[in-house]
Write a structure and sequence with these properties.
The chain is an alpha+beta fold. It has helices at about 15-20, 40-50, 70-80, 125-135, 160-165, 210-220, 235-240, 275-285; strands spanning about 25-30, 35-40, 55, 65, 90-95, 95, 105, 110-115, 115-120, 140-145, 150-155, 180-185, 185-190, 200-205, 230, 290-295, 310, 315-325, 330-340, 345-350, 355-360. It binds (6S)-5,6,7,8-tetrahydrofolate.
Length: about 375
């Protein structure tokens, strides 16, 4: 088997050595880094996330730091969600669009002060985008990628572990709120957040030279609750209806098509990038929608759906953008990106390689 490993164009996570020590078996490229995606035991990794606690290297969630007198202005120009009421110390999930209203990222924004923000980004170059927009609009800001690397601690026992490391004050943190902290002199930000619906925290490491230390502190503290390594879980996130930008979206996808319409504020100023396009799209009618899809057979298929065609009565109506065997549903499930005229309950076919599987459209989330 050929190898791909860290090099000058594939940056190393501060937790890389720790994840290798913990038996990582597969990576996926993301923001020019390697994200661990398996430790070789998918059933245990899923079980830990649902019933215990799981530790993830998500340093690929890079931060774009925007500071300066026009920082708040720039962040609002980049986001189609209204940020006028966001408080210092709180995060918010914000769709970002290009001038066509097409989704280009769905970061979590963290407001550190009236002139300091981080965009915690998905897989796309927002550093370059933010700098270009700032320059074109003549804004007084500084933009950089700081030395910050998130680690997620997710699952019903995550709070016990994070409280054991940082103290009981973390129990009072509300959803998406964050605070600076330190452990053994390692500077971090602790936030109640994360890419799962099982609860938990993200610990943003602020000194990349201390990744192994931080990883081992959390691992040690989590032993009483059976902590183990994991990653943004492909099964749980489908069951929970969490969007994967770039996985479930293409170069035409608007926020309306993928259930992010509730985070779009159409009465924002016209200079917010994408907002005039989104108003027009909304008025003309949205073409596609994201629904769930569940296979009729309870047979467990290997592999993942990669934009399999979905047909109804022999006509192509869209794509299955992701899929997994769900232990909770005891069925193959996934997301369907189909024409807006289709309805929950409709019977469809999925063309999977040489096979044709019978399936049904359903509501999201599954759980
Ligand atoms: N955490 C942080 N940064 C991130 C991610 C993260 N950057 C990249 C990627 N993940 C961005 N994508 C998401 C997708 C979903 C959520 C967060 C980031 C999320 N969504 C909730 C939901 O859809 O129910 C809550 C949204 C809300 O109510 O505001 O949490 O995981 N730091």
């Amino acid at each position: 088997m050929a190898e791909i490993g860290p090099n000058t164009r594939l940056r190393v996570s501060p937790f890389y050595n720790a994840t290798v020590q913990d038996g990582v078996t597969a990576f996926s490229p993301y923001n020019a880094m390697l994200m661990p995606v398996s430790y070789g035991n998918p059933d245990a990794e899923y079980d830990r996330l649902l019933n215990g606690v799981s530790q993830w290297d998500v340093s690929v969630e890079r931060q774009v730091e925007i500071t300066g007198p026009d920082a708040a202005r720039l962040v609002q120009l980049l986001s189609v969600r209204d940020l006028s009421t966001i408080e210092v110390g709180k995060g918010k999930y914000i769709p970002m669009c290009d001038h066509r209203g097409v989704l280009i990222n769905d970061p979590v924004v963290l407001k550190h002060g009236s002139h300091t923000f981080w965009l915690s980004i998905g897989d796309n170059n927002i550093l370059m985008w933010a700098r270009a927009i700032a320059a074109e609009r003549g804004l007084n800001v500084a933009i950089c990628e700081p030395d910050v690397s998130p680690m997620a601690v997710q699952g019903p026992k995550a709070e016990e572990v994070v409280a054991a490391v940082f103290g009981d004050w973390v129990r009072a943190l509300r959803y998406f709120w964050f605070a600076p902290a330190e452990i053994s002199g390692i500077p971090v930000i602790v936030q109640r957040s994360g890419y799962s619906k099982q609860g938990g925290f993200e610990i943003y490491l602020r000194d990349g030279s201390r990744g192994t230390e931080l990883w081992n502190i959390v691992k040690e503290a989590g032993q009483p609750w059976g902590i183990g390594p994991g990653n943004p879980n492909p099964i749980e996130r489908i069951e929970s209806g969490l969007l994967s930008y770039g996985g479930d979206t293409d170069d035409q996808t608007t926020p309306f098509e993928v259930r992010l319409g509730k985070y779009v504020d159409l009465d924002l100023d016209d200079d917010v990038i994408g907002i005039t396009a989104l108003r027009r799209i909304k008025a003309e009618g949205v073409r596609r929608q994201q629904l769930g899809i569940v296979f009729d057979t309870s047979e467990r298929h290997p592999g993942h759906a990669i934009w399999y065609d979905i047909e109804k009565d022999g006509q192509k109506i869209g794509h299955m953008t992701c899929g997994a065997w769900s232990p909770r549903a005891q069925a193959m499930i996934g997301f369907a990106l189909v024409g807006a005229e289709h309805r929950v309950g409709e019977a469809v076919d999925v063309k999977r390689g040489g096979y044709r599987d019978k399936a049904r459209l359903c509501a999201l989330p599954f759980f």
